[in-house]
Amino acid sequence: MGTRHPYPPGKGAPNGIVMHVLSSISTTTVQAVYAGAEGRLWELAMGEQIHIGGLASSLDLATRAGIAAGATGVDLCSCTGAGCRFLVKLRGVARMTGVDMTPEMLALGRQRDVRDGVSGRIAHLQAQVTGTGLPSAGFDFCWGEDAWCYVTDKPALAREAARLVRSGGTVAFTDWVEGPTGLSAAEAQRFMAFMKFPSFPSISEWRDMLGTAGLKVELAEDTGRFSPHVDLYLGMLGGQLGYDALRTLGFDQAMLQAVAGEMVFVRDLAKAGKLVQAIFVARKP
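Predicted structure:
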């Protein structure tokens, strides 16, 4: 069940990091979501950029991180590579490598690269984001959008992100994190089980993990976008996209009602200050 303890268990958490952990969630659990109907439902509600705020969030992250035209980057937990396509199409990034563990998402990403005319500038790699096998210091920046919440060993993810960027390079990401009010153990268990999050830190805990990985954190704050966007998704699924949502779930009305109920729970947690979308920018000395 969900609880708070030093993480990863038995490995010695950096600076005594303590975060919510749900041990029943694994990489296989997350893969099943994104390869199936639930993943298609999220994309229906949120668009191809499956993160809070969509294009506006991506533009904000790129601007605040100083992502420059001609740079090279790696997107960890890239899903279908929507972030990669955004960066090469709208920010002039020279080349992106997307790393993800779900083969169905990588295959779909390659198709969409061809559709958008960027297949020559994006590579998709199936690998663990905590150990990609890519060259050290091989990129100008490391990128992530609302996806690192799915990674179990977040200290290892922070170390891998730091390893991949050159000296002076940037690690920039947004993510869902625990808000200032804090989650109870019961709230964390229900929320993490619905979202398939194996571990769930706060902003300050992410700061510590990035710092321990050798990065200098320049920005770590709440974007303020969370609850208004969940209201938007609920409104779309309950109204304009209701039929599309039912079709996505095989016309299982009970399942759609259950998902909507959990999304209301998530929205209420956000309104209570227990969940936020946070933005992080860190540099490698």
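Summary: The first helix runs from residue 27 to 34.
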